[in-house]
Every structure is written in structure tokens, then in C-alpha cells.
Amino acid sequence: MKARIKFRKYGALRFIGHLDVMRFFQKVMRRADIPIAFTGGYSPHMIMSFASPLGIGLSSDGEYFDIELTAPVSSSEAVRKMNEACVEGIEVLSFRQIPEEKKMTGMTILAAADYLVQPLEQRRILPEDWTARFEAFLAQPEIRIIKQTKRSEKEVDIRPMVYNWTVRDGAVYLQLAAGSSQNLKPDLVMEAFCRYLDPAADTSETSAVPEDFSYRRLEMYADAGTDTERKLVTLESLGTEIA
Amino acid sequence: MRSLALNDDILLNIEKPARYIGGEVNSVMKDPEKVDIRFAMCFPDIYEIGMSHLGIQILYDMFNRREDTWCERVYSPWLDLDKVLREKKIPLFALESQDPIRDFDFLGITIQFEMCYTNILQILELSGIPLHASERTKDDPFVIGGGPCTYNPEPLAEFFDIFYIGEGETVYDELLDAYKEWKKSGKSRKEFLESAAQIEGLYVPAFYDPVYNGDGTLKSFTPNNLHAPSSVRKQVVMDVTDASYPMKPVVPFIKATQDRVVLEIQRGCIRGCRFCQAGMIYRPTRERNVNKLKEYARTMLKTTGHEEISLSSLSSSDYSELKELVTFLIDEFKGKGINISLPSLRIDAFSLDVMSRVQDIRKSSLTFAPEAGSQRMRNVINKGLTEEDILDGAGQAFEGGWSKVKLYFMLGLPTETEEDMREIARLSDRVARRYYEIPKEQRSGKCQITASSSFFVPKPFTPFQWASMCTAEEYMRRADIVKDEFQNQLNRKSLKYNWHDAQVTVLEGVMARGDRKVGKVVEEAYRLGCLFDSWTESFHNDLWMQAFENTGIDPNFYNLREREEDELFPWDFIDTGVTRKFLRREWENAIKETVTPNCRQQCSGCGAARFGGGVCCESKN
């Protein structure tokens, strides 16, 4: 039996990296007595897979991982027990059964993620009308940036990977491509935007930089649509409550 | 929600920000308004090292059981954050509340090794606490030191208000109660220290005056305050089974050096190796009840969620219920994905059997600590391990499928000859030969024998406290001899030899047996920029040598002379229970190459029987 867990990460725990979050949840499973399955072999480990690593410093309202269970456990009880075994900064939001098929787990079906981007208080280099400028920025037919990879750098157009966006109350909501085939991080969008604001800028003293914004992941989605049409559904909605 | 002492901008630009945020599972939060005593407990090294220390976990738990006390943790900020704290003038803070250390009532620092002394000064300076106890006012915390290095606290005497000599479980309650009373009374700082000095085991360095002879040796060491006793008695918990033990240790987010449940199975050691300070100062050997340990294992695995459990003690093979405990741990937890991490055990049929059940034989290695290459030298240091034990043990292991062996040695031991040094290589070779005695088709390729040597540092309260050390050059010459001898061995391709650096050894020697004058060198070295001296990348021997020169203190005075039989040592005011007479007798036995039986074979009258328990009373039960 497979289960999907949705959790929130905030406050001081934004500074715990992805690998440490995995280790944290392995210990939560033991403290909360969740009947999780192990791999075989000489050094068995828990069967647990995370949808997408979250960068250090980011908070999130929609993190996911999937586990394999050896015995059923009710959703409400699992959520309660896991939260008792958690600390401030991580809160389990739901625990749902997901279908057994291999291709249904976290990383493989991930297609998009929502982010909230807000300017930080301490620096005011951003122009007053930055939200209007941001709308103009995304209205461009293409946005070419240099993307650094481990081996080389290449120019990519990130515009098609911005699926949706809204500007509201001085903040930006972005829906970006996520997953193994296409993945766009929100700070990369803001980096492109900062360069758009001031193409000649060379220091963070005089111009806005991506670090001037806070980033919060809000939700992650799978694509339930067809090859031609995207239909995003939350990862959580693919699971069902366990009685 | 807790707010952090460091802002996002700082945390995102330093290595491992999780070191500084607190909030871990089982960390203790209290309302500062509802406690009388704020205690900051410090391990003066980075978080990952400090969090691996059992002693702090014990005291943290014990203090927090008191409703009137909130104990928090603080570790050394790594060099990156150190720079930021100085530049931005951010005071050092405790992990739990994130409040500045200087607002605490106590700053407790555990002093586990000599090379952390400059880190202690960093902690004080970044906290905004005057380095010298004499300059502290009523607004400053009381700085209290504990741990093995306090068996010679003198090099640090000026920086501490109080030293706690011995095991922490005994008189802290008394000290905290006295503090509460003092805080209400409005009396002076000195008056509190006077009441502390009257508690057994507590040493207030300001209340003692050392006087020196013309040659620099100590002439007298006497109290200058009526409340200070002439000798300070080490603290021992006689009932370790019922002593306080943390059932909910703090679980770090990031990987600590020891990221597991630790069961302390016993304290002390019956062996009496003459170089070993722990084996002398933790006498008498006391065992924890095995049923209690089983219960602790269950509870602690549950409360922490750790996936590994290990045993902690000196010479674990001597724990009388070891077989029962290890068998229990394997039967009970192995099937639940819990790793059992075994301490280094005496190699015999039992240990090989359990090792094969918990480790991958092909990957794991066997460890022997012969400490010296020749039997003569092993007799000098009273290391009971014989060559036969090593070859038999290795042979059994090789036949059981192991092919990797680690051997630990010391160089620079008292009376060491060139022959003793060369025997390190030859013994290693004989272990390899034993491997190749196994028919080719029954063994899996080559064996791997790794020998490592460290340089011996004489420690206070050991039979070798009188011994002289060598210069750094002489140490390296000896390592070269061993290295050379390894080249002459038949199986040299299966042998590997590692040796430690000698410069740190020289400094350790000065700190270990130094007097109060050495404090000036520590302070000067710190001023010159020394910090994290136990980390190779941040150790600067040239700055230390500069510090000796600037202060006019000669390291050779502390290291290169054999001390007179009746020389007054800076640490002699401490009463460990083990008598100086016994230590001297053992020093003479060492010179005569005479072996002394271990505590279970025969009592040698060291003096620890005075505590009335442990191994000293076993046969009488």
C-alpha cells in the first residue's frame, strides 16, 4: 500500500536542506510508529521518495513525499501521530493512499509548482512600479537567459515554462514547470526580471537582485491532461483519505 | 514562532546554517519568565562535534529536569560566522532561545581536549564576557568548566570562575541552589564564589596563589581565601545505574559525528594502562545494570527515531554483561532496520560472531590497539595485549572472512628504543604473514593492514606524569624510522603506515602539564589569530611559536625535562582518589618493565577503594 504525505515547511526549518529533511522524516516514521516498508539487502532503508527538493531558505505550503506501507493506517491518525513527532517548522497536512502503479509516485508525475514571490523589506532598490514592469516583462514573447549546468552554460527560453502568473497586493504568483523533463526555479525568473529592469547593472549595491525577494512554494501538480492540453491537478488530489 | 538571532541574509551565506537555528527534536523550550536560572552549556567546537558528546546530553537533561532552570546549548561558530558576528557586532547566542549568552546566569564549558583552548576564548569574546574572571562584574555570567582537561585546569585558570572536578551528576544541584539563594541576597560576586568553593569538587582558581621556584617549577600552591579548601576532591557517581540519564536526547537536523543512540555501559577501566588518563581518573570501574540498559535502548530509540545504537565505555569487552546486552540488541532491533554499532572489542569467538551478524565482513575492518610494537614496550605501558593475542585474534578473523586490520600505536613512549620503533613495522608484517598462511583458494585476494601511530603525550594523574617528551623534530625522526622499517617488510605491499603531525603533540604536551603561566600563551595565540587548532586547515603552528616568543614562555620547560620525584605539580591540589604514591610505584614498575595485574585479577591499592564501590567492592559482594 502506498501513501502520499503533504507537509508544510516554514520558519527556522527553511534552513534545513533537502537531504536533512529526508533524514528528519525517516526519524519521524520511527517516532510516530508509521508501518513503513523497507528495502531488502544488507542495509535496508525506508521506501520513501520525495517529489522535488526545496532550496535552502524557501518556505513551502505544499511539499510531498510518497511511502510504502506494510499495514494500513488511518489518515487522521497518521497525521496526528506524525505531527506529534514533528517540531515547529514542519507540519504534516495530509496522509493519503495513492494508486499502486509505479508511474504514479512523486517525482515522475510532477509537472508544475506554484510560488509566491515577495520583495524583502530591508532593500528598496526596486522601482515603485515594479509590478507593472513585471507584467510587461512576462508579456514578452520569449525570455532568453543563460542557464548554468554542471558542465556548460546554454541559452534557454524560459517563457514557455511560466505556465501562469498573477500580480496581486505587491506580490507575484508564479506557476512554473517542475519535474524531471522541464524545471524552472522562481529565483531564475526573478534574475531574468532584474536584468530586464537594469540590463547594465553589475552590482547588487545599485540594482535589484534575486536575493531581494522571498520565495514560497505553495503547491505542486501533476498533469492529468493529454499530449496537447495541460490539465494540472494537485498531487494531493490524486490520493484518497484512508479511513 | 521562535525568532532567530541571525537574519536570512546571514544564514543563507554561511556554511550549514542549521548549526545555529536550534529547534531540534527533544530540544527544551521554557518560558524565561518562569525560571530562576539560565544555564548555557557549551562544547567549544562546531555543532556536529559538540552534539555528539554524551556528557552534555546528560547534563542538559539533568538541568532541565529542574523547574527553576533552563539549560540551553551553544557551540563554536565556524570561521565564516565568527567573521560575521565580529563585523556586525552580533553577540553570541544560545540555540534554544537565541538569546545572548552574556545575559545568562552560567556559561558551562566542557573541556574535552587541549587543542580547544583558543576556542574557549572565542566563545567568551563573542559573548561579550571579559576573558579574565577577575574583570567580570555582577552582570556577567559565571563561567564554569568541566571535563577531563580540568584535571589540570591551571592553563585556563584565569579564564574561569569555577571548575567542576569530576563527574557532573553529583553536586550541580547544590551549586544551582546556592546560586538561587545568592541571587536573592544581593551579595557580591566574590561571596557567591566563596559559597561555591565550599561545595566538594568545585575549584575556584582565584582563591589560590601559585608561588614558583627560581627554576620555574612550582614552590607552593595555597588558598588565599578562608572558604577554599587546600585540596579539591574529584566527584564520582557511585550508583551509575540510578544516575540521571537522558531518555530524550536532542536529535540534530544535520548529521552529527555521532548520530545515534548511545548507551554508556560502564565508567572507568580495570586495565591500568600507564599512559591512559581516563583509566586513572575515572576509577573505580562501575557498571550499569544490564536490564536498565535494555530499557534505555528501547525508550531512546523510540524517542529519537535514530536508526543506530552504539555502546560507550572504555574497554567494552570488560563489561561483565556484554554478551547478554549485545545479543539482546541484535535480536530485538536488527530486524527493525536498526544498525548496531559495536565498540572495538577484544577479538574472540564471541566478538567475531556478533561482528559478522551486524557488519559486512568484506567491508569492515578489525581494530587492535597494541599501542606499542614490542612486548618490552607493552610491558612498560602495562598494555595487557600480547603478540599471541593479536596474531590469534587476527588469524581467527582472517579465517572468518575478514581481510582488513587496523593497528594503533604510540611513538615517543618513555624508554622507547629504536628496536621498539622498528617492531611496529615488524608486528604489522607478522599480522599480514598470518593472513597469507591461509591457503590461496580460501582467502579473498590481498589483506590490508593499516598501522597508525600518534605521539605520546604524558598526562596528569598517570604514572607517566613524570616523563619527558621529545621535540617535534625527534618525533618526526622516529616516525621516519618506522616508515623506513615498513619498507623492509616482506608484505610491504599489504601494509600501510600513517603517522600524526608532531607540532600539535608539542602543544598538547604544554597544555596538558602546564601551569598558570601557560594561560598567557593561550591568550596571546588567540590574539594572534589561532582558532580551531584541532582542525588541520586552521592550525597555525607558526602563530603558536610566535605566542611563546612574545610571552617569553619556553615550551621545552614543560615538555623536555623528566620531573623530579618530589616536584610539586600544578594539579596536585586535586584529589582523584588514586594516590600519588601509587602512580609513582607504577612509574617505577614501568621502568622495570614490570606488569601490574588489572583490577579484577588483583587489587593494586591505587586508592580508589576509598570511594567504596564499583570494581573495588565486587569480590566482597
What does this structure look like?
The complex is a heterodimer of chains A (about 240) and B (about 625). With about 240 residues, chain A is α+β, with helices and mostly antiparallel strands. In chain A, about 20% of the residues lie in helices and about 35% in strands. Chain A contains five helices and twelve strands. The mean pLDDT of chain A is about 90. With about 625 residues, chain B is of the alpha/beta class. Among the domains of chain B are: about 220 residues, Rossmann fold (3-Layer(aba) Sandwich), CATH 3.40.50; about 140 residues, Transcription Regulator spoIIAA, CATH 3.30.750.210. In chain B, helix 9 runs parallel beside helix 10. The termini of chain B are far apart. The model of chain B has no long low-confidence stretch (mean pLDDT about 95). At the A-B interface, helix 1 of A face helix 1 and helix 9 of B.
Number of H- or I-type helical stretches of chain A: 5
What's the CATH architecture of the domain at 8-231 in chain B? Answer: 3-Layer(aba) Sandwich
Low-confidence stretches of chain B: none
Give unreliable regions of chain A as ranges: none
**CATH structural class of the domain at 8-231 in chain B:** Alpha Beta
Structural class of chain B: alpha/beta
User: What is the CATH topology descriptor of the domain at 8-231 in chain B?
Assistant: Rossmann fold
Discrete helix count of chain B: 20
CA-based shape of chain B: globular
Helices and strands of chain A: which structural class?
alpha+beta
Beta-strand content of chain A: 25-35%
Mean pLDDT, all residues of chain B: 96
Describe this protein with a few key phrases.
heterodimer, A: 243 residues, alpha+beta, Alpha-Beta Plaits, ten-stranded mixed β-sheet, B: 621 residues, alpha/beta, Rossmann fold, Transcription Regulator spoIIAA, six-stranded mixed β-sheet, four-stranded parallel β-sheet
